[in-house]
Amino acid sequence: NMENIMDEKREDFKKVLPTLRINFLSALLSDNPPEPAEIKARMKMLDINFPYKYFCTAAVRLEKLEDSENVLEYEYEKINIGSQLKKTFITDSSLCQFYEEDGVIAVIFNFNFTDKILHENGRKFLEQNIPLVSCLS
User: What range defines the domain where residue 28 resides?
Assistant: First the structure.
């Protein structure tokens, strides 16, 4: 029946939601971002919210490993960096969205405090002893 079909479609959508979010963030940070109306519609569909006044972007380049046996360590570092981003930048007055592509973690920060506090939070993030090649903002 129609209700079962709709339930199945909702479940299918939930399965691809992480990929759709990554694609959206990638498009948002690209050289040719979507129009504001499309951004708003996609944010609603993907349940992405940027409620604060200020924005900042950053990129964290991950160190490439030469030894193929260290793939697990490399993947663990990506997870660790994502965890540290969430721990540092998801607060009562800020949030972040990020994705990784080609050894670079791209981040969008949305916040409602001074740039001094943003810099302090950035310093806290960098002090987590994460082996970074570079971090650009």
Answer: 1-48
Residue whose structure tokens are 């607060």 = 91
Task: Specify whether 129 is located in the same domain as 74.
Answer: yes
Q: What is the tens place of the pLDDT at every residue in 98-114?
A: 999 888 899 999 999 98
Closest among 116, 136, 114 to 126, alpha carbons compared: 136
Q: Is residue 90 domain-shared with residue 54, that is, in the same domain?
A: yes
**Is the pTM here over 0.70, yes or no?**
yes
Q: Is the pLDDT of residue 37 over 50?
A: yes
Assess whether 77 and 131 both reside in one domain: yes
Under a CB-based contact definition with an 8 Å cutoff, are residues 129 and 96 in contact? no
Q: Which residues contact 65 (CB under 8 A, 6 or more apart)?
A: 71, 73, 74
